[in-house]
Amino acid sequence: MSECAIEARGLTKRFGRNVAVDGLELAIPYGRVYGFLGRNGAGKTTTIKMLLGLLSPTCGNISVLGLDPRKQAKAIKLQVGYVAENQRMYGWMKVKEILKFTAGFYSTWDKELVQESIERFELDPEAKVKSLSQGQRMRLALVLALAHNPRLLILDDPTMGLDPISRKEFLNDIISSLREGGRTIFFSTHLLAEIERVADSVAIIDRGKLKVAGEIDFLKSTTKGIRLTFADSPPKQISVEGLLRVQTNGRDCVITVKDFSETKVDVLRLQYDPVHHEVIDLSLDDIFSEFVLS
């Protein structure tokens, strides 16, 4: 049995001349809360559709819970909970009706969990789905995704379109679900603040290509800004191993590097002779920007 809930090797999807996902490499161990980060159009939803067997890769290999989505999509769907952006549900059904309808597809449906969830999320079983607010619909979608006790929960930008209060409440709902333990969560989003609250690892994708992946704490410890202040204008060109981006402002120059070490600071000081230097810690939002814009 693979040690990873999700594995991708050279995963590629082309639509004509457009390369939506380009040689993606992922290895996500069981039990992780994994953030999949990228701008709109970066290839996140296309990747998820390949994970679920809804799209076939152009080339590359993919494994979900040890299964091949190209051949075993049905078996995967029975073990995966999925919440999509603007999830479609039958609006004419009542909450209790859509729960009963969905339960028929799963032998592992947990009625007790459903009852606890609709009470916790304050969902009226008699309410029509179309009468629910956007936040209530997303809570219902989360109940539907969790009710069969999936081993893997996939969230595709689920808070897109929610107001800030509803977004925070929905994220709290997700955190509550994490306490049930043992479940792997793959959380795709472009909203960085919400990921930092729940995820332990992230991958950053841009234009279909993986830019970086790793534990959040590791990325923060190895991706740093170095501010150099010069007596006059900064040099026109600055080079150092692992350089991501250089930004200048007056006499200051901020260099962002990956694989940070104090040796790199020493190299910059000796080579460019600044009058002052400072190492800057970066937030996950900063790190995302640096890798995407580099």
Note down, in words, how this protein is organized:
- This protein has 294 residues and is of the alpha/beta class.
- It folds into 2 domains: 4-215, Rossmann fold (3-Layer(aba) Sandwich); 223-293, Alpha-Beta Plaits (2-Layer Sandwich).
- 32% of the residues lie in helices and 30% in strands.
- It has 10 helices and 13 strands.
- It has a 6-stranded mixed sheet, with helices on both faces. Strands 11-12-10-13 form a 4-stranded antiparallel sheet. The protein has a 3-stranded antiparallel sheet with strand order 2-1-4, with helices on one face.
- α5 runs parallel beside α6 (164-178).
- It starts with a strand and ends with a helix.
- The model has no long low-confidence stretch (mean pLDDT 91).
- Residues 6-232 form the ABC transporter domain.
- Pfam families: ABC_tran (PF00005).
- It comes from Abyssobacteria bacterium (strain SURF_5).
- One of its GO terms (molecular function) is ATP binding.
